[in-house]
Amino acid sequence: QSALTQPRSVSGSPGQSVTISCTGTSSDVGGYNYVSWYQQHPGKAPKLMIYDVSKRPSGVPDRFSGSKSGNTASLTISGLQAEDEADYYCCSYAGSYTGVVFGGGTKLTVL
Amino acid sequence: QVQLVQSGSELKKPGASVKVSCKASGYTFTSYAMNWVRQAPGQGLEWMGWINTNTGNPTYAQGFTGRFVFSLDTSVSTAYLQISSLKAEDTAVYYCARDRETTVTTSDYWGQGTLVTVSS
Question: For residue A3, what pLDDT is reported?
Answer without folding.
Answer: 85
